[in-house]
Hints:
Layout: H1 22-35, E1 42-46, E2 61-64, H2 70-80, E3 85-91, H3 92-98, H4 100-109, E4 114-119, H5 149-152, H6 158-163, E5 170-175, H7 179-197, E6 203-208, H8 212-215, H9 219-233, E7 237-240, H10 245-259
Parallel strand pairs: 1-2, 1-3, 3-4, 4-6, 5-6
Antiparallel strand pairs: 5-7
Amino acid sequence: xxxxxxxxxxxxxxxxxxxxxxxxxxxxxxxxxxxxxxxxxxxxxxxxxxxxxxxxxxxxxxxxxxxxxxxxxxxxxxxxxxxxxxxxxxxxxxxxxxxxxxxxxxxxxxxxxxxxxxxxxxxxxxxxxxxxxxxxxxxxxxxxxxxxxxxxxxxxxxxxxxxxxxxxxxxxxxxxxxxxxxxxxxxxxxxxxxxxxxxxxxxxxxxxxxxxxxxxxxxxxxxxxxxxxxxxxxxxxxxxxxxxxxxxxxxxxxxxxxxxxxx
Length: 263
Ligand SMILES: Cc1ncc(C[n+]2csc(CCOP(=O)(O)OP(=O)(O)O)c2C)c(N)n1
Ligand code: SF4
């Protein structure tokens, strides 16, 4: 039997609750960074939320952005040190509610950063408040009778918005609810990082993840709830596939030609 090597970037056991999705995604990101030889050339920008627990065992360089400012800080890192890999790691409350503007602006500019958003359908660290990704009818501490979509709107699908921006390099939504999907997610993480390293531009990978603690469920029922309620609403897959840098340059040239009447 062969044992799998733990990436150098993971230097202690994780500290998330049992059944939490964060640890799995952290591990995949660490594996991909190491595989690509960037474990000493990466700056991780962490959002405010349970993602901050990564600092307890992350063996690489990192900073913490003020709530919602992850994409803005990761942009600053990239501008100052374009030779480094700049990754933002955030929760849905951080990236999609408080920091929606920063998230969309970085994507809209096609800034070459890789953004990973853990969508666990709530603001977890602060005790399970409703987020814009909270499911219809979902009970949270601020929707104790279940989310009423007539009053608060339907869950937001940010990757679908970002995938509509013309020059964005890569957008995908993965999940950690099964081994098969974890394997597929590893490919999405690698694509996102490679899109930055090859100069194609901005990438966003949203990851659907369980938060058994704030959902008030055991691990098994949390995974079942994901399959029954969350996955039918948040479709998995690549929403914007990578194009080669040349392909992107051709798109830009074509749009420049058409905007000046083909002259
Ligand atoms: C500007 C600002 N607003 C609110 C907070 C409080 N706060 C800290 S963590 C957090 C929840 C984060 O939720 P999310 O981004 O979804 O991450 P999760 O904990 O679910 O992984 C909130 C609201 C803060 N620190 N700063
Ligand atoms: S509160 Fe939820 S998101 Fe935070 S560590 Fe626990 S299970 Fe994970």
